[in-house]
Structure of Non-specific lipid-transfer protein:
Amino acid sequence: MAALKLVCALVLCMLVVEPIATTAITCGDVTSKVAGCLSYLQNGGNVPKACCDGIRSLNMMARTTPDRQTVCGCLQTAAKAVKIKGNLAETLPAKCSVNIPYKISTSTNCKK
């Protein structure tokens, strides 16, 4: 009986210590999260709630440096493809009350 308890305790410890598997963020993920921002980034006006919700969600997904670098690069690629107003992109995190550790700009060095 004591051996069974020990085995159960060891299995429980392995489950607790086992790292949670995560998947890498893709540009598709980024695009879907910021889709609600497109009209604002092209035309200005009020920032839609869906935009800020997407920015918050994206920020929560990008916890590691490689994830943040991927998001940064995807945002740059998307910004160039759809011709947004750069000044609106730069102010978006503040307007959504989200702290992003880099400036959203086509000139940002995403490798840092």
Notes: Residues 1-21 have pLDDT under 50 and may be disordered. The chain is about 65% helix and 0% strand. The first helix runs from residue 2 to 17. The helical segments are 2-17, 27-34, 38-43, 49-61, 65-82, 86-95.
